[in-house]
Amino acid sequence: MTQTMTQLSRAVDQREWSRMDEHLVSLVDSTSFEADQYRTLRHALERTHAAKKVIGVTSAVPGDGKTTTAINLAGVLAQAPDARILIVDLDLRTPSLGDRLGLTVQSPGLVDLVFDPALTLDGLARRHPQFRLAVLPAGRALTVPYEVLKSPRLAELMLQASRQYDYVILDTPPLAAVQDARLIADWVDGFVMIVAAHRTPRKLLEDALNLMDPAKLIGLVFNGEDRLRSGYYGDYYGSSKGKRRGWWRTGNGNGNGHGNGHGNGNGLAHGTSVLDTVLRTVLGRPR
Ligand SMILES: Nc1ncnc2c1ncn2[C@@H]1O[C@H](COP(=O)(O)OP(=O)(O)O)[C@@H](O)[C@H]1O
Ligand SMILES: [Mg+2]
Hints:
The protein has 12 helices and 9 strands. The protein is an alpha/beta fold. It has a single domain, classed as P-loop containing nucleotide triphosphate hydrolases (Rossmann fold). Adenosine-5'-diphosphate binds next to α4.
């Protein structure tokens, strides 16, 4: 029998939650233009990658917007009626997921769950008080996350999660430099690669893409562009919510969406033209 969110995670404890980060537009401003960009990503996932349930959000280097995107994506997925969404912090060197969501008690979390067989996923996942979202924080930071990430228990737990939830969104380590993200690639169904406009070094993006099984690359999401929204969208969404400007399009790399970019200027690797779907979101530069 299908379990409800209430059965899957701990009862909501309001004392564990405080205010969340304002950049999490899909949660704090769900009717905004920016939240709509994430809905387009959700639509692409549901339409083109329906079999993929365990989704890793990664990038070439730290600071490109993985955590921001992972939470916003989980937020729009959680808007579906009866949605059951789990978001997990796997960026164990620099965990920030729980903190960004306003979770004040981070421990026990994923690291404890992997090391202690007496703990259960259902017992540790925290139900968000407002959204159909369960959150599994890292628990603690590890300087060497290797043992956790390669652990068969982690793979089993995520398989269990994929059966219980509609989507499992993973805030993963960056791909370049360290092995971390590659350790989980066997059981992640697909990766969304975040590219920070004007920031992600093109060479490192290409290296990261080369490390990835092309079948598992769902698409690229551009984050942090400073181009203005088009007049159409500006009028449509009104200007009061336009603090984080941006545009978004989906396409096949040949420019069949609306929008005004062709990719390379933002550091898009030429190899991405082999992708079935290139997802691009441009969400306004971090202030
Ligand atoms: N589109 C955006 N608009 C504004 N600020 C952003 C945006 N994306 C990321 N940021 C900010 O940039 C910083 C790094 O983003 P984060 O999601 O933590 O990156 P990562 O998880 O890849 O290290 C955070 O302070 C975050 O709030
Ligand atoms: Mg992060």
